[in-house]
Amino acid sequence: MCDIGVISPPPRLVVRYESVVYLSSVRPGARSGVVGAIGANVVALGLVSLVTDVSSEMVTAVLPAYLVFGLSLSIAQYGLMDGLYTGVTAVTRLLGGYTADRWRARKTVAGAGYALSAVAKIGLLAAGGSALGVGAAIAADRMGKGVRTAPRDAMITLSAEPAALGRAFGVHRTLDSVGAFLGPLVALAVLAGTAQAYDAIFVVSLCVAVLGVLLLILFVRNSHDDVPAQRPLLKEALGLLSDPRIRRLAYAAILLGLVTVGDGFVYLLIQRWQGLPVLWFPLLAVGTNVSYLLLATPLGAIADRFGRWRVVVGGHVALLAVYLLLAGHRGSWPAAILALALYGAFYAAVDGVLMATASPLLPKRVRTSGLALLQTCQALAYLLSSVIFGLAWQAFGPDRAGFVAAAGVLVALPLAVWWLRSAK
Prior knowledge:
Layout: E1 14-15, E2 21-22, H1 34-38, H2 40-70, H3 75-87, H4 89-102, H5 106-127, H6 131-159, H7 165-193, H8 198-219, H9 234-238, H10 244-258, H11 263-274, H12 282-306, H13 308-328, H14 333-358, H15 367-396, H16 398-423
Antiparallel strand pairs: 1-2
C-alpha cells in the first residue's frame, strides 16, 4: 500500500526484520520536523477524517433543525434520540477495538466503520419523513463512527513518537475540523440552491463519504508495532480496568461525559435566542469548528509540554463558561459568538488530548481495546446527559436547564481533576 510521503520531506527508510520497508519509525529522535515527529500516516488519516467530516457534518449541522422544526419532535424527544444514537456506539466501540487488536487489522476495521457510515446515508434517503427511519439511519452512522474511532486513534499512537502524541492528535483533529468547518457550509449551499431540500444534502453527503473510504484504502497503511503476533484474549482487554490508573481515567471520562450535553442543544439554544432562520442554522456549527480548527494543534502541543490532564481540565472550564453564557445572556450576538468560540475550544482541548493521555498507559497488544473502552464510557455518559438535559429543558425551560448543566460541571471538576492527576 502506498504512503503519501509527497506531503512531507523524504523520511528515513527503516528496514524491519520482516523485510518490509516502512516509512516511519517511533524511535525518539529518529525524525525531525513536525510531520516527521507525528508521522505521514497521521496526516493521511487526518485527510480521510477531513473528507469524512465534510460528509457527516453536512447532516449533523442540519439534523437538530430537521428533527425539531421539520419533523416536529419535542425537545424531550430530540434529547432521547440524540442520546440513543450517541449511546448506540458503546457496543460497537468495544467490538471494533477488540477486533482490531485480536486480528491486528486496525485499518480494515476502521475502513469497515467508514463504509458503514457511508451506507447509512442511503438509509437517510430511504427514511423520507419518518422520524423512526431517520433515527435508525443516524444510529447506523454512529455505529460506523464507533467501529472506526478506536482503531484510527490507535494507528495515530503507533505512527507518532511517544513524546509527540499531543501534537499528533492535534494535527489529526485540525484536519478533521477543517472538514467539520466545510461540511455545514456545503449543507448551507445545498439548502440555498435546492429550496431547502434535505434529500439533496443526503445525496451529496453519500458521495463525499464514498470518497473518504477510497482515500483510506489508497493512502493509509496499517500501523505495525513491535509486539509479537500473539492474539490478545478478550479477558485481557476487559482486564485493563484492573489497572488503577486506567480505572481512574475511565471514572473521569464517565463523570465529565455526564455533564456534557449534545451539540444540538447548544445550537438550538442559540437559534432560539436570536430567532435565527432555519436556513442559517448550519452556520452555528461553523462557528464552533473555526475555533476548533485554530486551537486543536496548539493545544495538543501545549498538552505535550505542560501536561495533558491540565488541558483537559481547561477545556471543561471553557464548557462551564459556555453553559453560563447560554443560560444568562439571551438575545446577545456577542455572547452567542463567544459561546461558540469557547465550545470549539472545549472540543480542541478534550477530544484528542484525552486519548493522548490514555495511550501511554495502555499496552500495545490491547491499546485499541483500551481506547475503545474509554470511548465507550464517554458514549454511555453522553446518552444519559442528552436524555436528562432534554427532559430538564422540557420541564423547567432552557435557562434553568443551562444553569443545571453549569452546576454539574462545577461539582464534577474537582473529582475529575483528582482522578486525572492520579492517573498520569
